[in-house]
Amino acid sequence: MAQRILVIGSQGFVGRALKSLLAERGAEPVGVGAPGTSADYEVDLTVSSYDPEALAERVGAVDGVIYLAARITRGSCVNAEARQNLRVIADSAVRTFEAFHERYRAHFVYCSSIKVYGPSEAPLAPEAPVIRPEPFSYGSAKALAERLLATSALRTGGRFAVVRPSFIYGPTQRADNAIPIFLSACFAGKAPVVFGHGRELRDDVFVRDVAECLAEACLRRETGIFNATGECSRTLFEVAELCCRAVEAVGGPAGLHPVLDPSRPGKAWIDQRFDRTRTDAVLGCRATPLFQGLVEQARWMRETLERTASQRGGAA
């Protein structure tokens, strides 16, 4: 019988890829999204009146819950927006974990982030202590959620896994992220601009790889922490160079190379490397090579640009 898996945050970038992958694996994905997202079930997780017990009753029996819901912001850790982040990322997650464990003994998988890790010169493995999350509400809330889930599991006997993705890229990614910005510049025939010295190490992971880690952790009912990262970290300048080559590979402008803009500093906190040994061994997952994933994203962007141009031409 197919496993019925609840995906909370199903209409987002990762959620769409995850639902598709679960269906491919023979599971029955059920989506929960914010009001107005056309999810199977629409729930506002930002309000204090959110009732996970009522959601569990509405949804019915499930074998697993994968919790993706989050708001990614870089604001203060003390303002009203930060408190709303905290409710969605930590409070609602733990209450959902407890409600679905109590009613259905559902396995729970929490999508966290590499932003819970502190600075480190060595590759960061899941065993590394969460010593200093990024100084914004997103990473701090993710770190708190992990601690609260662990405490709740000790009290209730619930079982859960944590998946920590790095910087996620792929088709349908938001246009205001680094990789889409680099690719868009290349399609326009312009050199992508890298701020600062460009030597910060950055780890990028393909969206389908993150979906696979989340799905396998849930379907296999694994516990513990897993890094969902790329095959290796690269400097930001190297990532921009690969974006140039990916656009060229799908028929875009050739011969472009990134340029540095030292007038604006880079982001020192992204200077990290990661160890995904446990992910590969326990979940059987393998990272998509960055260039391969970038070519797929560049191809999707080219097709989107061509479709948009065709629609504008038809309208004229």
Structure at a glance:
The protein has 316 residues and is α/β, with parallel strands linked by helices.
Secondary structural class? alpha/beta
Average pLDDT works out at: 92
Strand order of the largest sheet: 3-2-1-4-5-6-11
And the CATH topology of the domain at 4-173 and 205-230 and 273-289?
A: Rossmann fold
Structure, explained:
The structure is a single chain. With 316 residues, the protein is an alpha/beta fold. The protein has a domain at 4-173 and 205-230 and 273-289: 3-Layer(aba) Sandwich (Rossmann fold). 43% of the residues lie in helices and 16% in strands. It contains nine helices and 13 strands. The protein has helices at residues 13-24, 52-59, 80-104, 137-156, 178-187, 207-219, 236-249, 277-283, 290-315, and strands at residues 4-8, 28-33, 41-42, 64-67, 107-111, 160-165, 167-169, 193-195, 201-202, 204-206, 224-228, 234-235, 259-261. The strands form four sheets. The chain has a seven-stranded parallel beta sheet, with helices on both faces. A two-stranded parallel ribbon has the order 7-10. Strands 8-13 form a two-stranded parallel ribbon. Helix 3 links the parallel strand 4 (64-67) and strand 5 (107-111). Helix 1 (13-24) crosses helix 6, helix 3 packs parallel to helix 4 (137-156) and helix 5 crosses helix 9. The longest helix has 26 residues, at 290-315. The model has no long low-confidence stretch (mean pLDDT 92).
